[in-house]
Amino acid sequence: MSLSLLRPTVAVLVCASVAVAGAAGAASKPAPPAPVCNLLTDAAGDGNGIDPGSPVPAQSGGPSNDALDIVSADVASDAKTITGVVRVKKLAATSSSAPSGMTWSVYFTVDTTTFSLSAHSDPTGAITFDAAHSATGVNSLYGPGVTGIFDTAKSEVRISAPRDLFAAESALKPGTKLTALTANAGPEVAIPDKAGAFGGGAILEGALYYADTASGGKDYVAGAPSCVVPGK
Ligand SMILES: [Ca+2]
Which residues have beta carbons under 5 A from ligand 1 (an ion)? Predict the structure, then answer.
């Protein structure tokens, strides 16, 4: 989504919220705002962006991978923590169609900086969590302090980072608008270093490698009530 397409949407939302606030102010006891939930949704059954037999995956490259089939996503924050959630059709830590491991990520943008909160499974199913930003086109990983919950019972991945972790790029304080919410899921593709060797944890992710991607969700205002409890 380009910013030129995004901005008119933001402007409409701002006007709508002002109108609602005005109406609520007339009441003697305004109701608290309802928690937001499922800011981003996606159809089930389309987690098949990867065809393992093709160097450039087709749009429908074989059976949908339930563990990578995004159905919804959220981002939520409070004064201390920001949490991203990716929900899939049926979460699993390993997959025969993604033997190199898998990644689930939530992206959001503040001003011109895009941030990500991600979970990674390795070939054994071990899970790690990280955060990154991509203001200059090169992802810089943040750490430490990123935690998460790989919740197979709810088929959702929750990744949490201390708000302070992003302080160098954005305060992310309550009231900050988070736009361009996007969720991606796909295999992790190991890439060789310049010497042609694998190692050092280098991984590649990108549109060509996503099994599923979802965008076009609603914006989130930091600190707003959500069905997601930050840090949980
Ligand atoms: Ca999907």
Answer: 42, 46, 69-70, 212
